[in-house]
Protein 1
Amino acid sequence: MVQFDDTLECINKIQRATTVEQVCAELLAVTSRFGLNALLAGTVPGPDTPLDGQKEHVVLCDWPLGWLQRYVERNYVDHDAVVRHMKRAPGSFRWTDANTQEELDAGSREVIGDASSFDLHDGFAFPVLTLEGTPIMVSLGGPAFECSPEQVSVVSLVSTYAVGRALQLSAIDSRHADKRPLTDREAECLRWAAVGKSEWEISQILGISEHTSEKHLLNAKAKLGAVNRVQAVAEAIRLGYIN
Amino acid sequence: MFFALSTGELMERPRLWQAVHELRYRIFVDEMGWEALARPDRLEIDQFDHEEAVHHLVLRDGELAGYQRMLPTTRPHLLTEVLQDLCVGTPPCGPDIYELTRYSVAPAYRDGRRGMSTVGTELIAGFIEWGMGIGVDKVIIEFQPMWVLRALQLHFLATPLGYQRAYGRQQVVATLLQFNGDTLQTVRERRNHFLPVLARNRPAPAGYRLAS
């Protein structure tokens, strides 16, 4: 009971987190009790993903910085036995089981050795499926991993909430991502439109062509994500372009 | 089309009643392996199909394509009677909380094994609309842990009620899901369908069959 209340409290904190870093910190606060103090969650990149494209696959990350750099630079994702095992047999497993069950080449031995040098000796990985059906692999590691089956299910449940919160936060971000700021002229045209001026009137006031004033208003509408001029004005007021 | 029917209204439509219980049998006994529900007549019926249960049906071209059953938590329900070991502490209850059980989509209406079918999301949009119309904003669901992430992506506020356990062939976790207009909007955006799904009328009394 006490332990479950604990789990609930962590999940509450995760759902109230406002940044992905906070989500990571709350999750690791739970998992570090079981010797898991490093975390990476993301979709598994295909074999030919360029190095700078790998970042887009990451949902949650709190890996030792040096390890992360090396992982990306040396393209370890293509040699990591844990990733290979997840692709071949999606499910939850210990890192050490993946290392014994997968055929190891020189590259995968290098990954294991390097992980150890960053004090990542063992860990636990499992997939979660998004609404779109995309598997996200969660991998947690640390110096020594000791966990009963019940604790494993707590770790995977709390991790699922963490991935969910991270996806919510990135969805919120992307809603605002297209919203480039209005230029001075676009804002000015909207201000005149807000007091009922036509495109022709606005063009006369600002000394521009009617076509240009129309274009400014269309751009403003698109940037504000509005379906019509009324909504664009309302949104501009909300964002402080018009007071 | 999404319909919400009382048990009485469902029983007035014998073909539909039959289709509902056949679908439940196919999903919960044949697919999920809940052997305790097995019966020779291949109809899945239990003590919770009482007069206060609400049956949600998705019909497509005269066929039953999807189903879920809503139970009031003001009287005994699965979490308090059958699945007690999924709940740690006192089960939440009240007039604003229903328990969503027997969520089923007929195989012909699943869009592949992954992702969400349109019938599946219509059931979700439907129970949110139905709940918001009668002052219900929370449901208890006992589902596979992978649904937790999907629920969060749909902007439900989720709270686990206990630890996951094996049930039939699945792991199951009891979860309280709270929803509001933002949840409904998110579900509608995902479905790319913005009109209400909950029908104001009742389905015709005859002529329905279970989809394959």
Note: The longest strand of chain B covers residues 63-72.
Protein 2
Amino acid sequence: MVDEALRRLVDGVMSDGARAALVAHAESIRDPVERAATVAYLVLASPEYQLA
Amino acid sequence: MLSRRDFIKGGVALVSIGTTAQSLLKGAVAFAAQHEGATNPAAAGRILILVQLAGGNDGLSTVVPAGSGAYRSARKTLAIPEEAVLPLAEGYGLHPNLAGLKRAWDEGKLAVVRGVGYPNQDYSHFKSMAIWQAGDPELKLDHGWLGRTLEKLESEQHDPFLGFNIGSSTPAELETPAVSIPSVQDPADYGFKVRGKPADASEPRTRTLLKLYEQYPAQSPYGVLLETTVEAAVASSAALAEAARRYQPAVAYPETSFGAGLSLLAEAIVGGLGVRVGHITLGGFDTHANQAEDHGELMQVLDEGLTAFQADLKAHGRGMTCWFSRGASSGGGWPRTRTGEPTTAPAA
């Protein structure tokens, strides 16, 4: 899910460290809808998206 | 479950912070240090609060030259009767709806600065505003005049709220690239939220967001700025929330947006956020044909707000001296207020 969000929103561009943080946070959320929304929020709020 | 509305609101809050609370990291660190027991020296100092009467307040209907024949001749339908004004000095009085400020005058806490302007006045409203905002008749100086003031203060003191604007965008007179100035319209919207509720830096999603910014290459364009911005946004929104928790208004503010803004300013001052320059705008003064009715109502809003603000600060051990000063534009004018120890002889 994280990679798909990154591919769609920032052309897959994100550092390994940031991606790892994103994956760890996503895996901590059990509700799939909330997980998707949170991943989308974080990618949209990330510097990669904000500067794109 | 997170609703689409909450999701969008969370994102909007972030963008809002990103555009209003730029690199504040130094200040955020200083703020954190102060709240570990240190005393904030600025809290005991003087604070300038500028109230801008946007739209071009009619100065002659605010501080009225009621004894002047020229005034009556020029204002045949709008002249305020001499018997209606609240007398200040020979031939002059305040608008009848400024009763609270008249009391401040009687207590020696209000001054009127007349004849403020610049040589060879330009009759363009826009150029005159630009001159006032820059504080430079030749428009050669960079940034706003309050922004330059804040640059100097920043070299002496770092606080996230050194300059604090009530509103949705930074006014030109406050602009400076060297100091970040939070612009807050509604404290409830100034901060990160999860499911519509404020989230602090310990909240998991916010922690992850901060990690994303930490991981962003510092050498990239805007890399450092972005990281410090988001960290500072978290810190300053937390500081404002903490100030709100500590602050209880001592008076009931009028139920106007101006009253709410002044209450927020008092909260920041009383909460010890290190405010040295506050800015608030009361708009609507471009009254045109509705001058007689609308101006009177605006004077009342101004008076009720400032009176409550003064009483609140006084109850919290802060004095306030208020100046009325006419602006550079031909029709403009605004009061300037400053909080601090009570004085009877305001400085220029």
Note: The radius of gyration of chain A is 10 Å.
